[in-house]
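User: Working on a comparison across species. This one is HTH tetR-type domain-containing protein from Streptomyces graminofaciens. Can you predict its structure so I can line it up against the others?
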Amino acid sequence: MAHVSAAERRPQLIKAAIDLMTREGVAAGSTRAIAAELGVAQATVHYIFGTKEGLYRAVMEKLTAELISQVEQATPEKGGFEETIGTLAAALWHTVHEQPASHQLLTELMMFALRTPTLAEARQSHYRDVTEVAARVVAEAAERTGQTLAQPAETIARYFLAGFDGLVMQHLSLPDEEAEQICLRALVSAVLALADGRLDPTAIPARTS
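Assistant: Here's the predicted structure for HTH tetR-type domain-containing protein from Streptomyces graminofaciens:
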């Protein structure tokens, strides 16, 4: 059998882990099962990634990179600010329908990482990177169109992503296409209102205990 370098084997193992956990869930993703998925020795996984958490970290980085690529590809280079945000939301929602298993796996991994201290940095990096690219989209669209932002681009991006993540979870748990489309449009409207100042968070009283 021809020798395969660690550099070549690494992406193969990441793909095998994604394929396995997409089918069977994160709990099924032991190093033994992932090695068997690719047909290599379990020791190969440990040699390349060190631990199971090391492999999971690589999987999270891969899924994050793919999500960021989808955001960048979905962002129109022309058009108004409102059109940009609406197109971005619609395109991302399309990926939820086209790749529900990928979104479910990423959600499961984030929940797993909450209970795994060694994955804390990977979890934080995911949200930080996705927020940064979404904020860049907002800022660049505003600059291109002359839109004055009533809130920082990062705040607008975090608001959009919080709503979008909630819609994804609802779709995975209790899908309702008609209600989802209404909620998605409402989310876009709320994001636009936050951006132009029609939605003023300071005017909403905070509840204190």
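For your comparison, note: The chain is about 75% helix and 0% strand.

User: Helpful, thanks.
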